[in-house]
Amino acid sequence: MEIGKDEKALLEIAHRQKGPVSEKIKNAPDLLPGLQFYVDAFNLLTTSRPTFQGGIGFIPYSEISQFCKDEGIRGSEREDLFFLVG
Predict the structure, then answer these.
(1) What DSSP character marks residue 9?
(2) Are 83 and 42 in contact (CB under 8 A)?
(3) Would you state the torsion angle of the CA atoms of residues 15, 20, 22, 23, taken in this order, to the nearest 10 degrees?
(4) Which residue in 44, 15, 60, 68 sits closest to 79, CA to CA?
(5) Which of 4, 6, 47, 75 shows its CA 20 to 30 Å from the CA of 12?
(6) Could you give the CA distance from residue 16 to residue 48 in angstroms, rounded to a whole number?
(7) What is the DSSP letter of 4?
(8) For position 1, what pLDDT does the model report?
(9) Contact 27, 3 (CB under 8 A)
(10) Where does residue 81 rank: exposed (0-12), middle (13-18), buried (19+ CB within 10 A)?
(11) Whole-number Å distance between alpha carbons of 82 and 37
């Protein structure tokens, strides 16, 4: 299992405090090669999601579009980003 930086930080905290490790961390799914990019993009863009009483909205199209421009993302990778992150 390959884990991300957030999971590593949580594991280190649990180890230092001699506490239990969450089942979600222990049983985290493996991502297929190339998908970590989309998880990282989602984590970066999620702060732009509108909030309202009782929920959180989608990541705005404009934010994803600007991210693509800033990062030089084009073609099918751009389409995939809109589909997976939006």
Answers:
(1) H
(2) no
(3) 120
(4) 68
(5) 47
(6) 33
(7) -
(8) 47
(9) no
(10) buried
(11) 13
Residue 63's contacts (CB-CB under 8 Å, 6 or more residues apart) are 45, 48
**DSSP string across 15-84:** HHTT-PPPHHHHTPPPPPTT-HHHHHHHHHHGGG--EETTEE-PPPHHHHHHHHHHHT--HHHHHHHHHH
**Residue at 15: amino acid letter:** H
Write down the residue that tokens 């693509």 correspond to: 68
**pLDDT over 80 at 4, yes or no:** no
pLDDT tens figures, 42-64 = 999 999 999 888 888 999 999 99
For residue 52, list its beta bridge partners: 55
- Assigned token pair, 6: 């957030």
